[in-house]
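Q: What structure does this chain adopt?
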Amino acid sequence: MPPKIHVFWKQKVFAPYKIAALIRTVAEQGITSDVVLQGIQLDASHINDPNTLTSIRQYINACDNVIAAAADVSSAFQMGQHLHLSAYGVYGHGLMCSSTVRDFFNFAVKYQALSTPALRFHWREEVDVAAWIFFDTYGHLISQGAREFLIRQQMAQQMVHLMDTAGGECRPIKALFAFPDAGNKAVYEQFLGCECVFDCPASELHYPQSILSQVPQFANRITHGSLQEACDRLMRQTKAHAGVTGEVHQMLILTPGQFPTMEQIALQMQITTRTLRRKLEAEGTDYGTILDGVRGTLALEYLQTTRMSTEDIAIKIGFSDGSNFRRAFKRWTGKTTRQMRYAGL
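A:
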Protein backbone atom coordinates (compact mmCIF):
# COMPACT_ATOMS: atom_id res chain seq x y z
CA MET A 1 0.00 0.00 0.00
CA PRO A 2 1.64 3.31 -1.05
CA PRO A 3 1.62 5.34 2.19
CA LYS A 4 0.84 8.70 0.59
CA ILE A 5 -2.38 7.31 -0.91
CA HIS A 6 -3.57 5.22 2.02
CA VAL A 7 -2.36 7.35 4.92
CA PHE A 8 -5.90 8.23 6.07
CA TRP A 9 -7.50 4.77 5.70
CA LYS A 10 -7.56 4.05 9.44
CA GLN A 11 -6.61 7.43 10.91
CA LYS A 12 -9.50 9.22 12.61
CA VAL A 13 -8.81 12.75 11.43
CA PHE A 14 -11.97 13.85 9.56
CA ALA A 15 -15.14 15.48 10.83
CA PRO A 16 -18.12 13.13 10.23
CA TYR A 17 -19.84 15.42 7.72
CA LYS A 18 -19.97 12.77 4.97
CA ILE A 19 -21.42 10.15 7.29
CA ALA A 20 -23.96 12.73 8.52
CA ALA A 21 -24.91 13.53 4.91
CA LEU A 22 -25.27 9.81 4.20
CA ILE A 23 -27.60 9.36 7.19
CA ARG A 24 -29.76 12.31 6.09
CA THR A 25 -29.93 11.04 2.53
CA VAL A 26 -31.12 7.51 3.25
CA ALA A 27 -33.45 8.44 6.12
CA GLU A 28 -36.16 9.22 3.56
CA GLN A 29 -35.95 5.58 2.43
CA GLY A 30 -36.60 4.33 5.96
CA ILE A 31 -32.96 3.37 6.60
CA THR A 32 -32.16 4.44 10.16
CA SER A 33 -28.91 5.86 11.52
CA ASP A 34 -28.43 2.65 13.52
CA VAL A 35 -28.30 0.71 10.25
CA VAL A 36 -25.84 3.15 8.65
CA LEU A 37 -23.56 3.10 11.71
CA GLN A 38 -23.68 -0.63 12.41
CA GLY A 39 -20.27 -2.07 13.25
CA ILE A 40 -18.26 1.15 12.82
CA GLN A 41 -17.97 2.14 16.51
CA LEU A 42 -20.15 5.23 16.14
CA ASP A 43 -23.69 6.11 17.14
CA ALA A 44 -25.99 9.05 16.44
CA SER A 45 -24.60 11.03 19.39
CA HIS A 46 -21.09 10.87 17.87
CA ILE A 47 -22.30 12.20 14.54
CA ASN A 48 -23.73 15.30 16.23
CA ASP A 49 -20.69 15.83 18.49
CA PRO A 50 -18.29 18.48 17.11
CA ASN A 51 -15.36 16.65 18.74
CA THR A 52 -15.97 13.42 16.81
CA LEU A 53 -13.31 12.41 14.29
CA THR A 54 -13.68 9.59 11.80
CA SER A 55 -11.59 7.64 9.32
CA ILE A 56 -12.02 6.88 5.63
CA ARG A 57 -12.54 3.22 6.58
CA GLN A 58 -15.50 4.13 8.80
CA TYR A 59 -17.09 6.19 6.04
CA ILE A 60 -16.69 3.43 3.44
CA ASN A 61 -18.04 0.85 5.91
CA ALA A 62 -21.09 3.10 6.37
CA CYS A 63 -21.52 3.09 2.58
CA ASP A 64 -21.38 -0.73 2.64
CA ASN A 65 -24.11 -0.74 5.32
CA VAL A 66 -26.31 1.46 3.15
CA ILE A 67 -25.75 -0.79 0.14
CA ALA A 68 -26.56 -3.90 2.20
CA ALA A 69 -29.80 -2.21 3.31
CA ALA A 70 -30.83 -2.00 -0.36
CA ALA A 71 -30.66 1.79 -0.58
CA ASP A 72 -31.77 3.27 -3.87
CA VAL A 73 -29.02 3.64 -6.49
CA SER A 74 -29.76 7.37 -6.50
CA SER A 75 -28.58 7.72 -2.86
CA ALA A 76 -24.93 8.36 -3.81
CA PHE A 77 -25.95 11.08 -6.29
CA GLN A 78 -28.28 12.71 -3.75
CA MET A 79 -25.58 12.66 -1.11
CA GLY A 80 -22.99 14.19 -3.45
CA GLN A 81 -25.38 17.01 -4.26
CA HIS A 82 -25.55 17.89 -0.54
CA LEU A 83 -21.76 18.37 -0.21
CA HIS A 84 -21.20 21.98 -1.24
CA LEU A 85 -17.85 23.76 -1.18
CA SER A 86 -18.83 25.61 2.00
CA ALA A 87 -17.99 22.38 3.90
CA TYR A 88 -14.35 22.39 2.76
CA GLY A 89 -12.76 25.33 4.59
CA VAL A 90 -9.73 27.02 3.01
CA TYR A 91 -9.70 24.46 0.17
CA GLY A 92 -13.33 25.17 -0.73
CA HIS A 93 -12.88 28.94 -0.51
CA GLY A 94 -9.82 28.73 -2.75
CA LEU A 95 -11.79 26.83 -5.38
CA MET A 96 -14.66 29.33 -5.38
CA CYS A 97 -12.44 32.36 -5.99
CA SER A 98 -10.33 30.78 -8.76
CA SER A 99 -9.46 33.24 -11.53
CA THR A 100 -10.70 30.92 -14.30
CA VAL A 101 -12.37 27.53 -14.47
CA ARG A 102 -9.03 26.11 -15.66
CA ASP A 103 -7.50 27.38 -12.40
CA PHE A 104 -10.38 25.68 -10.55
CA PHE A 105 -9.50 22.33 -12.17
CA ASN A 106 -5.80 22.73 -11.36
CA PHE A 107 -6.45 23.86 -7.77
CA ALA A 108 -8.86 20.97 -7.11
CA VAL A 109 -6.31 18.37 -8.22
CA LYS A 110 -3.30 19.93 -6.52
CA TYR A 111 -4.92 20.24 -3.09
CA GLN A 112 -7.36 17.31 -3.08
CA ALA A 113 -5.53 15.82 -0.07
CA LEU A 114 -7.07 18.62 2.03
CA SER A 115 -10.54 17.16 1.41
CA THR A 116 -11.69 13.73 2.55
CA PRO A 117 -9.75 11.59 0.02
CA ALA A 118 -12.02 8.58 -0.58
CA LEU A 119 -11.06 8.77 -4.28
CA ARG A 120 -8.25 10.36 -6.25
CA PHE A 121 -8.92 12.43 -9.35
CA HIS A 122 -7.02 14.19 -12.11
CA TRP A 123 -8.11 16.08 -15.19
CA ARG A 124 -7.07 16.37 -18.83
CA GLU A 125 -7.75 18.83 -21.62
CA GLU A 126 -8.54 17.81 -25.20
CA VAL A 127 -9.60 19.81 -28.25
CA ASP A 128 -13.27 19.80 -27.30
CA VAL A 129 -13.33 18.28 -23.80
CA ALA A 130 -12.21 19.02 -20.24
CA ALA A 131 -12.46 15.72 -18.36
CA TRP A 132 -12.27 14.67 -14.72
CA ILE A 133 -10.75 11.20 -14.35
CA PHE A 134 -11.49 9.27 -11.16
CA PHE A 135 -9.16 6.64 -9.69
CA ASP A 136 -9.81 3.87 -7.20
CA THR A 137 -7.73 4.74 -4.13
CA TYR A 138 -8.20 1.75 -1.87
CA GLY A 139 -8.14 -1.18 -4.31
CA HIS A 140 -8.82 -4.55 -2.69
CA LEU A 141 -9.76 -2.89 0.63
CA ILE A 142 -13.25 -1.98 -0.56
CA SER A 143 -16.14 -3.85 -2.17
CA GLN A 144 -17.20 -3.35 -5.77
CA GLY A 145 -20.49 -1.93 -4.51
CA ALA A 146 -18.71 0.69 -2.41
CA ARG A 147 -16.40 1.50 -5.32
CA GLU A 148 -19.35 2.23 -7.59
CA PHE A 149 -21.11 4.19 -4.81
CA LEU A 150 -18.03 6.41 -4.34
CA ILE A 151 -17.77 7.08 -8.08
CA ARG A 152 -21.42 8.17 -8.24
CA GLN A 153 -21.03 10.34 -5.16
CA GLN A 154 -17.79 11.95 -6.38
CA MET A 155 -19.22 12.76 -9.80
CA ALA A 156 -22.22 14.47 -8.18
CA GLN A 157 -19.84 16.36 -5.87
CA GLN A 158 -17.62 17.56 -8.72
CA MET A 159 -20.68 18.72 -10.60
CA VAL A 160 -22.03 20.65 -7.60
CA HIS A 161 -18.63 22.15 -6.77
CA LEU A 162 -18.22 23.47 -10.30
CA MET A 163 -21.74 24.93 -10.24
CA ASP A 164 -20.96 26.52 -6.85
CA THR A 165 -18.00 28.19 -8.54
CA ALA A 166 -19.04 28.91 -12.13
CA GLY A 167 -22.84 28.95 -11.92
CA GLY A 168 -25.73 26.59 -12.57
CA GLU A 169 -25.27 26.53 -16.35
CA CYS A 170 -21.86 24.83 -16.04
CA ARG A 171 -22.95 21.22 -16.52
CA PRO A 172 -21.32 18.04 -17.84
CA ILE A 173 -21.93 16.71 -21.37
CA LYS A 174 -21.02 13.04 -20.83
CA ALA A 175 -20.19 10.62 -18.00
CA LEU A 176 -18.17 7.42 -18.44
CA PHE A 177 -18.21 4.54 -15.96
CA ALA A 178 -15.66 1.75 -15.61
CA PHE A 179 -18.33 -0.78 -14.65
CA PRO A 180 -21.42 -2.27 -16.35
CA ASP A 181 -24.92 -0.82 -16.32
CA ALA A 182 -27.10 -2.64 -13.80
CA GLY A 183 -30.27 -1.39 -15.45
CA ASN A 184 -30.12 2.09 -13.87
CA LYS A 185 -28.88 4.19 -16.78
CA ALA A 186 -31.96 6.42 -16.66
CA VAL A 187 -31.28 7.24 -12.98
CA TYR A 188 -27.66 8.13 -13.74
CA GLU A 189 -28.68 10.42 -16.59
CA GLN A 190 -31.43 12.03 -14.52
CA PHE A 191 -29.03 13.12 -11.79
CA LEU A 192 -26.02 14.03 -13.93
CA GLY A 193 -28.10 15.58 -16.71
CA CYS A 194 -25.98 14.10 -19.49
CA GLU A 195 -25.38 10.96 -21.54
CA CYS A 196 -23.94 8.09 -19.45
CA VAL A 197 -21.81 5.32 -20.97
CA PHE A 198 -20.83 2.10 -19.15
CA ASP A 199 -18.09 -0.56 -19.45
CA CYS A 200 -15.51 2.13 -20.23
CA PRO A 201 -11.74 1.90 -19.56
CA ALA A 202 -12.03 4.60 -16.85
CA SER A 203 -14.64 6.62 -14.97
CA GLU A 204 -14.70 10.17 -16.30
CA LEU A 205 -16.92 13.27 -16.24
CA HIS A 206 -16.70 15.40 -19.40
CA TYR A 207 -17.32 19.13 -19.83
CA PRO A 208 -17.01 21.34 -22.92
CA GLN A 209 -13.41 22.55 -23.25
CA SER A 210 -14.77 26.07 -23.73
CA ILE A 211 -15.70 26.40 -20.05
CA LEU A 212 -12.01 26.49 -19.03
CA SER A 213 -11.67 30.16 -19.95
CA GLN A 214 -14.80 31.23 -18.06
CA VAL A 215 -14.39 33.56 -15.08
CA PRO A 216 -16.10 32.19 -11.94
CA GLN A 217 -18.71 34.34 -10.23
CA PHE A 218 -16.54 34.89 -7.11
CA ALA A 219 -13.17 35.15 -8.91
CA ASN A 220 -10.60 37.17 -7.00
CA ARG A 221 -6.98 36.83 -8.05
CA ILE A 222 -5.50 38.30 -4.85
CA THR A 223 -7.65 36.22 -2.51
CA HIS A 224 -7.05 33.12 -4.61
CA GLY A 225 -3.28 33.67 -4.39
CA SER A 226 -3.45 34.05 -0.61
CA LEU A 227 -5.55 30.91 -0.26
CA GLN A 228 -3.18 28.97 -2.51
CA GLU A 229 -0.32 29.96 -0.21
CA ALA A 230 -2.45 28.88 2.76
CA CYS A 231 -3.11 25.49 1.16
CA ASP A 232 0.59 25.12 0.39
CA ARG A 233 1.40 25.68 4.03
CA LEU A 234 -1.26 23.22 5.16
CA MET A 235 0.07 20.61 2.72
CA ARG A 236 3.60 21.15 4.05
CA GLN A 237 2.32 20.81 7.58
CA THR A 238 0.71 17.50 6.67
CA LYS A 239 3.84 16.15 4.98
CA ALA A 240 6.13 17.37 7.76
CA HIS A 241 4.39 15.37 10.45
CA ALA A 242 4.66 11.62 10.66
CA GLY A 243 3.85 8.88 13.14
CA VAL A 244 1.69 9.60 16.18
CA THR A 245 2.66 13.28 16.06
CA GLY A 246 1.22 13.52 12.56
CA GLU A 247 -2.01 11.83 13.56
CA VAL A 248 -2.52 14.16 16.53
CA HIS A 249 -1.63 17.16 14.35
CA GLN A 250 -4.26 16.17 11.78
CA MET A 251 -6.93 15.68 14.44
CA LEU A 252 -6.28 19.19 15.77
CA ILE A 253 -5.92 21.07 12.49
CA LEU A 254 -9.15 19.62 11.11
CA THR A 255 -11.20 20.68 14.15
CA PRO A 256 -10.59 24.43 14.64
CA GLY A 257 -12.65 25.91 17.45
CA GLN A 258 -13.37 22.48 18.91
CA PHE A 259 -9.91 21.10 19.61
CA PRO A 260 -10.18 17.64 21.18
CA THR A 261 -8.38 17.20 24.49
CA MET A 262 -5.49 14.79 24.89
CA GLU A 263 -7.88 12.36 26.57
CA GLN A 264 -10.33 12.58 23.68
CA ILE A 265 -7.56 12.02 21.14
CA ALA A 266 -6.34 8.96 23.05
CA LEU A 267 -9.90 7.63 23.07
CA GLN A 268 -10.19 8.15 19.31
CA MET A 269 -6.88 6.32 18.79
CA GLN A 270 -8.06 3.53 21.09
CA ILE A 271 -5.09 3.84 23.43
CA THR A 272 -4.70 5.19 26.96
CA THR A 273 -3.73 8.79 27.63
CA ARG A 274 -0.56 7.52 29.29
CA THR A 275 0.39 5.52 26.18
CA LEU A 276 -0.27 8.53 23.93
CA ARG A 277 1.91 10.73 26.13
CA ARG A 278 4.71 8.14 26.02
CA LYS A 279 4.52 7.81 22.22
CA LEU A 280 4.69 11.58 21.76
CA GLU A 281 7.64 11.84 24.13
CA ALA A 282 9.42 9.17 22.08
CA GLU A 283 8.97 11.42 19.03
CA GLY A 284 10.33 14.44 20.92
CA THR A 285 7.13 16.35 21.46
CA ASP A 286 3.94 16.57 23.54
CA TYR A 287 0.27 17.47 23.13
CA GLY A 288 0.74 21.08 24.25
CA THR A 289 3.51 21.73 21.72
CA ILE A 290 1.47 20.26 18.86
CA LEU A 291 -1.61 22.28 19.86
CA ASP A 292 0.46 25.46 20.08
CA GLY A 293 1.80 24.87 16.57
CA VAL A 294 -1.66 24.21 15.16
CA ARG A 295 -3.03 27.36 16.75
CA GLY A 296 -0.19 29.39 15.23
CA THR A 297 -0.76 27.88 11.79
CA LEU A 298 -4.51 28.51 11.84
CA ALA A 299 -4.12 32.03 13.21
CA LEU A 300 -1.85 32.92 10.31
CA GLU A 301 -4.30 31.51 7.77
CA TYR A 302 -7.27 33.37 9.26
CA LEU A 303 -5.40 36.66 9.43
CA GLN A 304 -4.13 36.50 5.87
CA THR A 305 -7.11 34.94 4.10
CA THR A 306 -10.21 36.23 5.92
CA ARG A 307 -11.67 39.46 7.32
CA MET A 308 -12.35 37.93 10.74
CA SER A 309 -11.61 40.27 13.63
CA THR A 310 -8.75 39.51 16.01
CA GLU A 311 -11.29 38.73 18.73
CA ASP A 312 -13.14 36.27 16.51
CA ILE A 313 -9.90 34.54 15.51
CA ALA A 314 -8.93 34.28 19.17
CA ILE A 315 -12.18 32.47 19.97
CA LYS A 316 -11.89 30.32 16.84
CA ILE A 317 -8.54 28.89 17.94
CA GLY A 318 -9.39 28.47 21.59
CA PHE A 319 -8.27 31.65 23.39
CA SER A 320 -10.49 33.21 26.01
CA ASP A 321 -9.73 36.76 24.90
CA GLY A 322 -7.95 38.78 22.25
CA SER A 323 -5.10 40.04 24.44
CA ASN A 324 -3.86 36.54 25.24
CA PHE A 325 -4.09 35.65 21.57
CA ARG A 326 -2.11 38.73 20.50
CA ARG A 327 0.68 37.92 22.96
CA ALA A 328 0.82 34.34 21.70
CA PHE A 329 0.86 35.52 18.10
CA LYS A 330 3.84 37.79 18.76
CA ARG A 331 5.62 34.79 20.29
CA TRP A 332 4.83 32.60 17.27
CA THR A 333 5.79 35.04 14.53
CA GLY A 334 7.72 37.92 16.04
CA LYS A 335 5.10 40.27 14.56
CA THR A 336 1.84 41.81 15.72
CA THR A 337 -1.47 40.65 14.29
CA ARG A 338 -1.85 44.05 12.62
CA GLN A 339 1.53 43.75 10.91
CA MET A 340 0.77 40.24 9.69
CA ARG A 341 -2.67 41.11 8.38
CA TYR A 342 -1.24 44.06 6.48
CA ALA A 343 1.44 41.80 4.99
CA GLY A 344 -1.25 39.39 3.79
CA LEU A 345 -3.28 42.02 1.91
